[in-house]
Design brief:
Elements: H1 2-7, H2 12-34, H3 42-58, H4 64-96, H5 98-106, H6 116-152, H7 161-198, H8 202-221, H9 224-233
Helix pairs in contact: 2-7, 2-8, 3-7, 3-9, 4-6, 6-7, 7-8
Length: 246
């Protein structure tokens, strides 16, 4: 009974916003991972360029630049992983001083009052989003470390062409897997901002979730950088480039 009374603290608008948030979270991830009506995405174009990178590296005599690129990717992910820890720690600090936080939020003219239980639930959801982001970033970081090992294990450039092609395929697959988890971590940050809006109003929560999905979808399916990559692809070999990501 106490468990049910805890969730009864949420109004119907809060439940509507939470339901819409979950639909957008899981629906958008499925849409991006599987594509939309055969349209190309940044993930697909990124994998094609990773494969082209791996093929160029396989025949390069000096692969120092490839090691530097792999290291730079890992450093970028490490920054976000460290930032996630600070954000999570700050949110737990707010959870410990919740009464003071609620008093500050109540002074905003457009904010509505919430019960302590409802605010705790929202903070827990917000913490969960950044915890998910932290796990995605750290897993991506580990995969980029594996990518560095794969880069160092490249076969001789004058070896069997079939072996070099298989190596390039696997190098690109490892690179794409790491990049995909990095994108999932960034996505958790974006949706975390929507949950932050829930602290003020459930309607602002719904609007923020919708706007975030729209912005991310436009960047993924119809952005200037995507069109630039598609134009660049015209100058790259297409007959043996796989259309599906790993």
């Amino acid at each position: 009974m106490q468990f049910l009374s805890f969730f009864a603290q949420l109004a119907w608008a809060d439940w509507l916003g939470l339901g819409w948030f979950l639909v957008c979270w899981f629906g958008y991830e499925r849409l991006v991972e599987h594509g939309w009506k055969g349209h190309s995405t940044l993930l697909v174009e990124g994998h094609r360029l990773r494969l082209q990178w791996a093929r160029q590296m396989a025949v390069r005599e000096n692969r120092i630049v490839d090691c530097a690129l792999a290291s730079n990717l890992a450093n970028s992910v490490s920054f976000y992983a460290n930032t996630s820890i600070y954000i999570i720690a700050g949110l737990f600090a707010i959870l410990g001083a919740l009464d003071r936080f609620m008093d500050t939020a109540a002074e905003l003219s457009f904010a509505r009052s919430f019960s302590r239980e409802a605010m705790e639930l929202k903070l827990i959801l917000l913490i969960t989003m950044f915890v998910i982001g932290y796990f995605k970033f750290t897993w991506s970081l580990r995969q980029f470390n594996v990518l560095s090992i794969v880069t160092g294990a490249a076969p001789p450039r004058d070896g069997d062409p079939t072996l070099l092609e298989r190596y390039a395929q696997r190098h690109a697959a490892a690179n794409t897997c790491a990049g995909d988890d990095f994108n999932r971590g960034i996505r958790a940050y974006y949706f975390g901002l929507a949950v932050l809006a829930w602290m003020l109003s459930p309607w602002l929560f719904i609007i923020s979730t919708t706007v975030i999905v729209f912005v991310q979808a436009r960047r993924e399916f119809d952005s200037p950088v995507l069109r630039a990559l598609q134009a660049l692809e015209d100058d790259l070999p297409r007959n043996d480039v796989p259309q599906e990501r790993p």
